[in-house]
Write a structure and sequence with these properties.
Blueprint lengths: L8 E2 L2 E2 L3 E4 L15 H13 L4 E7 H4 L8 H16 L3 E8 L21 H18 L8 E4 L2 H4 L6 H17 L6 E2 L7 H4 L7 H7 L6 E2 L6 H5 L1 H9 L6 E3 L1 E2 L8 H17 L2 E6 L36 H15 L5 E3 L4 E5 L12 H20 L4 E5 L11 E7 L4 H12 L3 E6 L15 H5 L1 E3 L13 E6 L11 E5 L12 E3 L5 E5 L5 E8 L2 E6 L3 H6 L9 H12 L5 E2 L5 E8 L4 E7 L5 E3 L2 E2 L3 E4 L9 E3 L4 E8 L1
Parallel strand pairs: 3-4, 3-11, 4-5, 5-6, 6-7, 8-10, 9-11, 13-14, 13-15, 15-16, 16-23
Antiparallel strand pairs: 1-2, 12-25, 17-20, 18-19, 18-21, 21-22, 22-23, 24-28, 25-26, 26-31, 27-30, 29-31
Length: 648
């Protein structure tokens, strides 16, 4: 099945934004007060010379709108010069209007008072007026590539804003862009942090934004306890965001050099860029262009109290390129060589079913259930990538899904809607392999499987006792395969680290009904661990352990054995994988070129050099980008290699 391939376009042609969020090192957010055209031109030139083609820029709201009905014309003239300097270098920018939050500080115009940013009709009108006026001034400049309404408005506005009020505010300010004559693409700048991606309801719905906006822009800065999860943090959010059929621009990502060495900063950028490309992102804007460690900026907020914010730059405070900028340069070269504008994500046979309990606050359910779905789904998605069976997200809340996937993964499930269970059986009858792993959830409220007809669905009799769980006794859960199953032969063993809360570190005790299902694997105590029931031309597979949840809450666990289980499921389901690598420290994914060939990404998750011998399916030929046949490659530490795949 095809994966989301929505792209930004200009004059009917696809464009790729590769750039940086921009504040000049002369002043950070206060740069417009001390605007130095020569320094700005030099800063832009360094970015351009490293393959970047655009910036995201900011109207610092207190300065640009000093009174409720006036904009500062001198600052507007400086911004016009800023646009001219972009155009002279063949670059574009995306101006951001309501900049009241930035890098650990909120700033209000002096005239705001305590008025509500979303619900006060006068203040909303003032924002819309400002958006309209700034659009009117700059709409015809060729350097303007798009518009952003805000910078991380959920942090600046009320934390408990309602979806209806936020949606009305968003409609009015987006309409103000059009009222000002702006025809360029527009988005909100909210970070795509809504409930559909995070499980947290901040009033900003990603689904609602997709109806208003021309692109969706995740902002991702994660603190993790697992290196592979960290490398896929931005990618997972991009994958979730891509389900709304809008171009996904990784609008903010990056790191402060205060938190990472140069070498590890380069690794993070490399992994974030390539993994997000494979997860549906079609544009990238790093945070940010420069460090600010100079006597003026370090004395001003937010840098005075958030000193680490001084060092997020692609260049240092003297304008010299850092390792992060060199990674962007190398990424730009890859995009050019593969002709990225003529590429789309390759189709996949694997779907990851994401429970609607992520994005829907059903009556008498808990917020912890939403966070559980998000974290468990991410771990399962990573395991599928490491199994070289990359999954696209299928949201239960989108209703009935299209047929066509060969493998459906429903990982560590506590809750799905009742009709969904019938739909899963229908998909299996149609020829799919449907995998479900059990979980009672992570808390004690209504702890247990919210399944419809579980026993009949999987051909088992559950042995649960009401109100109780069956704790996992061992620190390592072992699966022993009693028969061949996909890529795992009879006698194969998988070891998985047990983890979870007192409520979730549990297994599902079942008896298998003879003639209805078969035991595929048992645990270390001889109990059914993996059960398969044949239905129609497909099958339902039940895992009695919450293997994805256990991995999701275990530090420094990846790669782990769930990827081997998913590899076996993919083989059992007949998932089409033209190129695979046996080592789970290497993920394989494909991109299709309009001319018919494919590009193969090998993304390493090993801290040392790794020899790799790709396995190529019959009928395909693997070469370097220069056309030399490939039998084996060596991946640098956490490295990426892009190869070409042609039909023989």
């Amino acid at each position: 099945m095809p994966r989301s391939a929505a792209r930004m376009s200009r004059d009917g042609r696809p464009v790729t934004w590769l750039g940086a969020n921009f504040w000049s090192r002369t002043g950070g957010p206060l740069m417009w007060r001390s605007y130095d055209p020569g320094i700005v031109a030099g800063e832009l030139r360094v970015l351009r010379d490293h393959g970047l083609n655009m910036t995201r820029s900011f109207f610092y709201w207190p300065d640009f709108m000093p009174e409720p009905d006036r904009v500062d014309e001198e600052l507007c003239a400086r911004f016009a010069d800023f646009l001219d300097r972009h155009h002279a270098l063949g670059m574009t920018t995306v101006p951001t209007f309501i900049v009241g939050h930035m890098s650990g500080e909120n700033w209000d115009p002096a005239w705001r008072g305590d008025r509500d940013l979303y619900g006060d009709v006068w203040l909303v009108a003032r924002q819309a007026w400002f958006v309209r006026e700034m659009t009117r001034r700059f709409k015809d400049h060729p350097a303007v590539a798009g518009w952003l309404i805000s910078n991380e408005m959920p942090i600046y506005g009320a934390a408990d804003a309602s979806r209806d009020v936020v949606g009305s505010w968003a409609q009015l300010v987006v309409d103000a862009v059009r009222a000002g004559g702006g025809t360029q693409p527009v988005s909100l700048g909210d970070g795509a942090w809504g409930i559909e991606n995070s499980g947290h309801d901040n009033g900003f719905s990603v689904r609602d934004a997709a109806r208003l906006c021309d692109w969706l822009g995740p902002h991702v800065y994660r603190m993790e306890d697992d290196v592979v999860r960290q490398h896929h943090a931005a990618a997972w959010v991009c994958e979730l965001t891509s389900t709304f059929d809008r171009p996904v621009i990784l609008e903010e990502f990056g790191l402060t050099s205060a938190f990472a060495s140069d070498e590890n900063a380069a690794v993070y950028y490399r992994q974030a860029l390539h993994n997000s490309l494979l997860a549906g992102a079609t544009g990238w804007i790093a945070w940010n262009n420069t460090d600010y460690d100079n006597p003026v900026v370090r004395e001003q907020p937010p840098y005075r109290h958030h000193a680490f914010e001084l060092y997020f730059g692609l260049t240092d405070s003297e304008g010299h390129p850092k390792a992060q900028l060199r990674e962007l340069r190398d990424f730009a070269r890859v995009l050019e060589e593969v002709e990225w504008e003529r590429c789309t994500r390759a189709a996949t046979d694997t779907a990851l079913v994401v429970s609607s309990y992520l994005d829907t606050p059903y009556p008498f359910t808990r917020a912890e259930d939403r966070a559980y779905v998000q974290e468990t789904g991410r771990q399962a998605w990573i395991a599928a990538r490491l199994a070289d069976a990359p999954a696209t997200v299928v949201r239960e809340s989108d209703g009935e899904w299209e047929d066509g996937f060969r493998l459906y993964l429903a990982p560590s499930v506590k809750q799905l809607l009742a009709p969904t269970w019938y739909r899963l059986e229908e998909l299996a009858r149609g020829g799919a392999t449907v995998y479900v792993s059990y979980s009672p959830g992570a808390h004690a409220e209504q702890r247990g499987p919210w399944y419809a007809r579980m026993d009949q669905l999987f051909g088992v009799r559950n042995q649960l006792a009401y109100g109780l769980v069956n704790p996992i006794e061992d620190d390592e859960v072992e699966f022993v395969f009693e028969r061949d199953f996909g890529s795992l032969g009879a006698g194969a063993r998988l070891s998985l680290r047990a983890a979870g809360t007192v409520n979730s570190r549990c297994f599902l005790p079942v008896e298998v009904v003879e003639g209805e299902a078969d035991v595929v694997a048992v645990d270390g105590h001889g109990r059914p661990a993996l059960v398969e029931r044949a239905v129609g031309s497909g099958r339902l597979v039940l895992c009695t352990y919450p293997v994805e949840h256990m991995a999701a809450v275990t530090p420094r666990v990846n790669p782990e054995a769930t990827s081997a289980l998913y590899d076996a499921l993919a083989a059992r389901a007949g998932v089409r994988r033209p190129v695979t690598v046996a080592d789970p420290r290497v993920a394989v994914d494909l991109v299709e070129h309009a001319d018919g060939h494919r590009w193969v990404w090998l993304v390493g998750q090993c801290a040392t050099e790794l020899p790799v011998k790709p396995v190529v399916a019959d009928g395909w030929r693997l070469t370097t980008r220069d056309g030399e046949p490939v039998q084996a490659v060596t991946l640098p530490p956490y490295g990426v290699v892009v190869l070409r795949l042609d039909a023989e």
